[in-house]
Amino acid sequence: MADATERSIVITHQVGLHARPSVKLTKLAKSFDADIRVRGEGTEDWVDAKSIVRVMGLKLREGTTIFFKADGPDAAQALDALVGLVERDFDEHAA
Amino acid sequence: MSMRPERSFPAQVASEGLAIGRISLRRMRRSDARPKGTPEEEIVRLEAAGAAASAQLERLIGRAEAEAAAILEFQAALLADDELLDPVRARIARGEAADAAWQQAMDGQIADYQGAEDEYFRARALDLADLRDRVAELLAGGGDEAGAPAETGAIYVGTDLAPSRFLELDWDAYRGGAVVKGSSASHVAILARARGVPLVVGLAANESMLVDGAEAILDAEAGQLIQDPSAETRARYLRRAAEREAEARRQASHLGKPALTAAGERVLTYINVDDPHILPAVDPASCDGVGLTRTEFLFSGEGGLPGEGRQLGAYKALMRWAGGRPVTIRTLDAGGDKPIPGLTPDGESNPFLGLRGLRLSLARPDVFRVQLRALARAAIEGELKVMLPMVTRPQELDATRAMFRQVVSELLAEGIPAAMPKLGMMVEVPAAALNIAAFDADFFSIGSNDLVQYVTAAGRDCEAVRDLYDPLEPGVLELIHRVAEHGRLTGREVSLCGDMASDPKYLPALLDAGLRAVSVAPARLARAKAEIAGYG
After folding, report:
1. How close, in Å, is residue B251 to chain A by CA atoms?
2. DSSP helix, strand, coil percent of chain B (3-state; round to 5)
């Protein structure tokens, strides 16, 4: 992946990459053309960030680091958006 | 009129009312395995069932409140993911029938979640099983047209009705329900009463006796479902329905006035809130405030952990609705018949006597503190009263108060406005009722549903001992009187927030016992006020 970019961030959401956060993450990933892959720390399995089955299958808990890599014309924007979503705790604390 | 003779099936009343409409028969058992088609035909069946399930989920999402919607959205997202369906398609290509292939593939996924280390991921196995069953039902040619409004009003008839299912159904389309299983003291019965939906349980009928689409009368007063009523029966029930309506209008005339007994004594009438979505339909001026908010609605979705922000939003909305009237919010009362995946312990041999209510909250301070923070922040919005469920010993109340005070000072130190609300307790455990003077609570609220079952040692959900589960049992009334008297002597409010308070059969006994505050389902408020007006 010549123009692939990679980013990582720690999940701070109380219950990790759970159903609702996973739905948000895959929806956001699908809004980009880039091929986006995601993996959890301690494994080399990159899975498709646009598949809820795959993303939930990672079963990432709070405090683990999540890695993203993207390949395609809007790869950089995609990574910014995804990292931002995890940083904002998946927007779950807005009253 | 049908050519079939009138048939009547007995049942127990779970939520009173009358409904005249048509039977909407929910499949009671899977149809026998159908002949398997070619792989191409089986693929078509799978895709059609998947599309139908997606459409059902979308309809349900449109109607569900945020918590339930999150889980439904998760299921819809799974169904839209080729990663889920591709293995099923591969099995079909190898010659399996669509239903077997679907079942096998999903069972594998479910087992994977059940084996997860983390309890929140384990809890997702339930959502997958729910999705598995929804699609399996459609594959079997069944499936529920819950989203399709019935033209003339339908009566839901089926084997069972889970609380989650009850919340999914459109009760503007369905006029009532009749189910084979269940008990009149179950959680779903409480929900039905809160919404004023007529419901009978323990229906003595099986699928071969019932006719889908047949005209029917649901008599949730005497406890029967009448299929194909004769002209005479129909006329009798139409008259009765008209009488009930007139009665309801008469009761409604009490709604705008404070509740006074015939002797002129004031009785506070609060409402129970199970689900804030009913609030817009209730005029806050018709009650004295909220006597019980069941916060389980917040925890019933996503693995049971709403953040501080989401909780605060819900509590503030309640306070705003109440417009200065007191709002009583009960801390999470999970356990017993209200399991919360990932929070309540699995496989307790006797969940009603296990880790539930405040016991569970104190065992999980990580979860409890989030709720206390949200409550302390909501307390600045008006008159908030926080009530603790299943208190057994004074030490539990004291420990909670200390934790609450600590939470308030932490918030203030963070520069976040917060206050210590009034802290009261539910009286449900006989030991607490007998020792009531030892509890330094700001107010007391008798939780009669559990108190009755603990005093009579007869389970709320056990049909075989129904007659022993008697709210008028002298031992029960004795304890209620004892708590009411303690409140009178110490100047602390004592209310009662169980089903007893909204049942005209029991209300006079409660007033006799000295209670002057009750909290009832919004659908029962008018009736309770009319009943109070006729007392004394």
Report:
1. 38
2. 50, 15, 35
